[in-house]
Amino acid sequence: MTEESMLNDSLREIVVGSVSGAIGKVIEYPFDTVKVRLQYSQTLPEPLFTSTWDCIAKTYHNEGVFKGFWKGLLSPMMGASMEVSSLFFSYKMAQDLINLYQGNKINTELPFGYRLACGCASGMVTSFILTPVELVKCQLQVDNLKSQKTARTPLGHVISQIRTQYGLRGFWKGQSSTLVREAGGTAAWFGCYEYTLECFRGDKGPDYNYKTHELLIAGAMAGVGYNASLFPADTVKNVLQTSEHHKSVSSAIKAVHSARGLRGFYSGLGITLVKTIPASAAMFYSYEHLKRMWN
Question: Which residues does 188 contact at the CB level (< 8 Å), separation at least 6?
Answer without folding.
Answer: 119, 222, 225, 226, 228, 229, 230
